Known about the structure:
The chain is an alpha/beta fold and 186 residues long.
Amino acid sequence: MLIIGITGTLGAGKGTIVDFLVKEKGFVHFSVRGFISEEIVRRGMVVNRDSMVLVANDLRAKHSPSWITDQLHQQAKLGGKNSIIESIRTPGEVESLRSKGNFILFAVDADPLVRYERIVKRNSETDRISYFTFIENEQREMASDDPNKQNIGKCIRMADYTFMNDHSIQSLQSEVEKVLKVVETR
């Protein structure tokens, strides 16, 4: 059983990689965003980017920096199938998942303007923001000395494989396919 974690910038293509792995490779998807959204709803809050960050940081502070992904990893292990945990955001999550074995971290990035255009098109509840807010949100989440807060920049640097997604979906899928072939031969 292989578990792939995925990190990356907002709108870079994490979901595109997840869709490919699920539909074409039979992976099971576990979403940090989904886990946090359920908790937000349980708390009677509005699901938006600010509440996502607030609740995620609160859960990490109460339990541990890796608590959310540890819960998802436990679910994946129970299922016993190749899985992907989407939206790794803290170095503690990476370290914890690596310590469990059979884990690889993918990172995905793209030009900021390309990424903003993508989020405008997908139009999810957390994506209805201005370009200024988009950049501001990203800067807030890219680095932190607090182990309970997002540090996407460090997570990207910790990745085993990084994909630049400035081209077509097919190009990204081809790059992921190449990496999977390397991983399978280990």
